[in-house]
Each structure stands twice: as C-alpha cells, then as structure tokens.
C-alpha cells in the first residue's frame, strides 16, 4: 500500500517580465497572484483597452518525484518544472507509436496547467495526473520511469543535446596517442557492432582512431564510411582520391609538404569525420602528422593566456576559388559553446572546462585576405583585446603549440591502414614525398556529425539493452 504523499508547499511571489516592469505603476498594480497544487502562477491583467501588452505571464511550480526511501535518506532533490514534465510525456497520445513524432506542440501547453502525483509504483516510476491540460487531453496521465527521473538530473537531456558529447574529450600529446593508437581490425569493424561501438567511442574521446587490414580495394572507404553514417558529397565528389598531379587544383594533390590544416573550412558547415584509406604507400616520405587542437586551446586556457580571447573573437575568412568554384565563409579560430544557463561565460572566460570547446578552425592554405583590423582606426580597426596585433600574437602561440614535436603524432600509413579523425578538432599534415606517378594513393570520404551521432546513439541503445552483437 502506498503511503500518503506529504502535502506540498510552494513559495510564491509576484513576478513581472522585463517588458512589464517598465509599465506605469497604475498598470503594474493590476497583478493577481494565484496558488494551486503543483503550480504557482502570476497573471498580468490590464484594464486598458489600448494596452498592447494584454498578455498572460506565469511562473510555474515544480513536482518532486522522489520516492519515500529517497526522501528519508535525503537523496538529491528531483523537483521538475511542471511544463518540463508535461512536455516530456511519451505516452501513445503524445508520441505517435509508428512515426515516433510528437503529437502536440510545447506552445499548446496551457499557462495554467497543473500536475499532481497520482501514484508511485514499486519499480520506482511515478504517474502524474494533469488538470487544465491541452485541449483534447482530458483525464490525461503521464508515467515517468525511474531511469528518466535519475538520468534527467545526472545527465540533463537539454545539456546533452547542446553539447552532444557522451564522452568527454581526452586531450592528447605524442606519448598519450602512442599508447592509444592500436588499430581496430577492419573485419571486426565491419561485422561486429561491439567493435564498431568501441571504435566510435575512441573517436569521441581522442578525435581519431585507426583501422588495419583494410582491403586494397577502391570501395573499401565506402564500406567504412557507411558503418559510421552517411557519406557527404562535396565539390570533390562523395569519394575522392589523393594523388599527386602536375597541375593540381588543391595543394593536397601535390607531392609537396602539406602543413597542419583542416578541410573545407570555407563551407558554413564543414564535415566532422574524415576518412583516409591508404591503398598505396609509395616509396619515400609522405608521413602523416596529427595534432590535437583542443589540447592547445586548453593549454592556453590553463595558462590564462589573454591571447586566447583573440582566437575566440577575431574573424578569419576561408575561401576556395578555383576550378569554377567560389566558396568562402568567416569563422573564429576557436568556437566556444556554453550551456544556456551558464552565467560564468562573461564573468571569467578562463574558468570553463575543456568540454566548452565546440570546434577549432585552422586551414592556413585556404585563408582569404583579412577583412578585420585593416587599420588602427576606423570601423574595422578591432575593439580592445580583439585587434589584428592580438590575433597575430595569438596564432603564433597556437601554431607553436600544435607543431611542438611533443604534441605531434606521426605515422607512415602502410597499405591497408585507414585513419578516421575529427576534422573540427584534429589538424593533419603530410611530409613531402618522392613523386612517382601512381606510387602514393589515398582514398578519402567525409561523414557529417549528425549521421555519426545517430549511429552512435543506436549502438548505445543496443549496448544498454544487451542486443549488441
């Protein structure tokens, strides 16, 4: 028998949105405060027929879904906003069982919706009964599993959706990567969901992993890409070859040294996964180099180097104008990402952790002429802390960090090896090689982040349910 639920007490105080605070006092006085179970509300009432702000504004209460044992043991509070709970309902009336799509809109939730716990189940799930629900949802109840209750606070879904990182990045140097670069066997990667899952987790953590024993067949890169997501078509085609040509349209198609860079930064949304399969290694040179830009950024942050702000603020344009194409896009060298409720982003730039780095943009061969900081005066001179002089000093520090021999992982890719790396985190380079036509042949492809994340989530579901082969 379920024990009687304790009576809930809500503290309520009038609240006016910023748009209402500037109204005349005579209008502000028409505010009524309401108290009800599961919610507290403030209603703005205007008697002026000419007042355009005759809207309703409310602040909703919370429901604590802890069970009695949690309450007795002072377990962490699990109080949910009632609108969050209503919006999260997954019953067949709210989520279509066939399409899995939502059957109502968040905007449909009434301002005066009220929720009350109607039952606590032995398995830890909780059922909430709704009053003043969406029209058509009369006598509606929602049941929330214990996993939903605990995981919502342990790993907030909204925060997870923002960062989309199930694994925090492991920042690496040469020594760390040397101990974590053991390749995954191609056959296992293709045939085993478990092998694929662990390889993709390594990609999440280190931004790079390798395959071995890949068949020297032109379509092997297609099979590898398809296992991780959907191949992205670009101006180079869905699959492209890296060979040296006498009149190359891209520096990658020469035998010259190719410095550290990322691909396709002249696009608004560059691909995240890059796949490079070695079909022929050539005879001399051509070693591949990789470096972790997130580690370089974090090093500057730990040192509280003020030049880091220039990397995060100064705009740099990348372009590709060749072979009938004219692409260009302006980005910051370091793209940061904060949760929407993080109030420290303006208080202390250097207090953030490594997971706030969204992406790094570094492709000197494709950098267009600067359009910011043209002169020391004028509209494009650059504000304090964001000048061209600061940017120049910052990129010198950044370049030194990513090119430091202790930070660089170098490998000569043999035939049958494949590198898969994060094009928004890992910079790659190549040493010059002896040019003999057809002696060095790499085949490549790109996969977008969304397709990769979809595949990883499916694998995680298989892992959690024990269905992984």
Percentage beta strand: 15-25%
- Work out the number of β strands: 21
Radius of gyration: 28 Å
Shape from CA axes?
Answer: globular
Major sheet description: 6 strands, mixed
Average pLDDT works out at 79
Euclidean distance between termini CA atoms:
42 Å
SS summary, helix count: 14
* Low-confidence runs of at least 5 consecutive residues: 1-59, 156-164, 378-382
Approximate helicity band: 25-40%
Sheet with most strands: strand arrangement: 8-9-19-12-21-10
Structure class: alpha+beta
Attribute tags:
disordered N terminus, 25% helix, 14 helices, alpha+beta, 469 residues, four-stranded antiparallel β-sheet, six-stranded mixed β-sheet
Structural account:
The chain is α+β, with helices and mostly antiparallel strands and about 475 residues long. Helix content is about 25%, strand content about 25%. It has helices spanning about 20, 25-30, 70, 80-85, 145-155, 155-165, 175-180, 185-190, 195-205, 220-230, 295-300, 310-315, 390-405, 450-465, and strands spanning about 30-35, 40-45, 60-65, 80, 115-120, 125-130, 140-145, 185, 210, 240, 260, 275-280, 290, 315-320, 325-330, 335, 355-360, 410, 420, 425-430, 440-445. The strands form seven sheets. It has a six-stranded mixed β-sheet. A four-stranded antiparallel β-sheet has the order 11-20-13-18. Strands 5-6-7 form a three-stranded antiparallel β-sheet. A hairpin with a 5-residue loop joins strand 5 and strand 6. Mean pLDDT is about 80; it is low at about 1-60, about 155-165 and about 380.
């Amino acid at each position: 028998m379920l024990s009687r639920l304790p009576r809930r007490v809500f503290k309520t105080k009038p609240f006016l949105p910023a748009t209402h605070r500037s109204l005349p006092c005579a209008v502000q006085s028409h505010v009524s405060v309401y108290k009800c179970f599961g919610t507290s509300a403030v209603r703005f009432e205007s008697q002026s027929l000419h007042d355009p702000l005759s809207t309703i504004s409310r602040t909703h209460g919370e429901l604590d879904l802890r069970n009695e044992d949690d309450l007795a043991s002072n377990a962490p509070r699990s109080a949910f906003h009632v609108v969050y709970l209503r919006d999260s309902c997954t019953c067949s009336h709210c989520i279509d069982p066939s399409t899995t799509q939502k059957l109502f809109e968040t905007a449909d939730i009434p301002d005066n919706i009220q929720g009350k716990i109607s039952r606590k189940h032995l398995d830890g799930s909780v059922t909430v009964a709704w009053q003043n629900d969406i029209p058509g949802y009369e006598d509606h109840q929602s049941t929330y599993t214990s996993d939903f209750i605990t995981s919502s606070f342990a790993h907030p879904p909204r925060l997870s959706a923002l960062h989309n990182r199930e694994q925090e990045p492991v920042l690496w140097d040469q020594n760390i990567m040397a101990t974590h670069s053991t390749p995954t066997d191609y056959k296992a990667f293709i045939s085993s969901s478990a092998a694929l899952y662990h390889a993709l987790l390594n990609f999440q953590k280190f931004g790079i992993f390798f395959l071995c024993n890949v068949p020297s067949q032109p379509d092997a890169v297609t099979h590898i890409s398809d296992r991780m997501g959907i191949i992205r078509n670009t101006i180079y085609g869905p699959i492209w070859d890296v060979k040296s040509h006498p009149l190359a349209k891209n520096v990658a198609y020469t035998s010259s040294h190719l410095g550290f860079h990322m691909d396709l930064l002249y696009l608004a949304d560059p691909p995240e996964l890059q796949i490079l399969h070695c079909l022929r290694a050539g005879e001399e040179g051509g070693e591949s180099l990789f470096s972790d830009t997130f580690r370089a950024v974090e090093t500057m942050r730990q040192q509280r180097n003020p030049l880091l702000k220039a990397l995060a603020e100064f705009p740099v344009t990348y372009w590709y104008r060749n072979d009938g194409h004219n692409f260009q896009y302006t980005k910051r060298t370091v793209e940061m990402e904060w949760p929407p409720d993080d109030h420290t982003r303006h208080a202390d730039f250097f207090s953030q952790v490594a997971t706030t780095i969204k992406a790094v943009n570094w492709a000197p061969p494709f950098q267009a002429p600067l359009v910011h900081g043209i002169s020391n005066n004028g509209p494009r001179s650059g504000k304090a802390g964001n000048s061209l002089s600061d940017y120049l000093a910052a990129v010198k520090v950044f370049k030194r960090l990513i090119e430091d021999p202790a930070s660089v992982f170098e490998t000569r890719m043999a035939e049958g090896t494949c590198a898969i790396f994060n094009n928004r985190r890992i910079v790659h380079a190549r040493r010059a090689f002896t040019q003999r036509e057809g002696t060095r042949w790499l085949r490549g492809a790109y996969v977008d982040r969304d397709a990769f994340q979809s595949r990883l989530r499916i694998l995680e579901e298989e892992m959690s349910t024990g269905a992984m082969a």
